Amino acid sequence: MSSGETRDGGVLDGFHIGQVPDGVGDEVSDFATEWDDVRFASRVWERQTPDGHRVDLRVHVLRGERLVDLTALREFLCGYHERDPAEWQLSEFPHGDGPGLHDGGQAFWLVEPGVAVNVLTTPEFGGSLLSTARSIQAGDSDPQQ
């Protein structure tokens, strides 16, 4: 791939990840976890480095009754990511599912009450954060899952 190209990220828990930035690691792993009554389906792209491994991109599909609106999602993510709510400066961005919030390294939005998506990346790929987030769409199924 030449610079600026992207690749398809596949389907994760009913969401198609339409693009992964060029240069993101080729080692891909899926995880299923739960934290504070919210279930996570996660996909991680990482690469091997001289010091071990480095995660370039993470996509989480979150499902839980407490995720009733964007404010509740932000509060949940403050706890999960150990962020101080008063200091976490976020900006709005439009997503096909509705408004989302982002900073330089992550973006998140509520798809519908009880379902949300959270995308995290490193500073190297921060310029692609919102285009990657906007490429994630609900409704595609994967018979392998």
How would you describe this structure in keywords?
single chain, 145 residues, mainly beta, seven-stranded antiparallel beta sheet, three-stranded antiparallel beta sheet, 12% helix
Verbal overview:
This protein is mostly beta strands and 145 residues long. The chain has one domain (6-138). It is 12% helix and 48% strand. The chain has two helices and twelve strands. It has helices at residues 70-80, 129-134; strands at residues 6-7, 10-12, 15-17, 20-21, 27-35, 38-49, 52-63, 91-95, 98-102, 106-112, 115-121, 136-138. The strands form three sheets. It has a seven-stranded antiparallel beta sheet. The longest helix has 11 residues, at 70-80. The radius of gyration is 15 Å and the shape is globular. Residues 141-145 have low confidence and may be disordered.
- Structural class, by secondary structure, is mainly beta
Number of strands: 12
**Series of secondary-structure elements, N-terminal to C-terminal:** EEEEEEEHEEEEHE
pLDDT below 50 for ≥5 consecutive residues: which ranges?
141-145
Helix content, binned percent: 10-25%
Major β-sheet annotation: 7 strands, antiparallel
Distance between the termini: 28 Å
**How many H/I helices?**
2
Strand order of the largest sheet: 5-6-7-11-10-9-8
Estimate nothing, just give the exact number of structural domains: 1
Query: Could you tell me the strand content as a percent range?
Result: over 45%
Let me know the average pLDDT: 91
- Gyration radius (Cα, Å) is 15 Å
Shape: globular
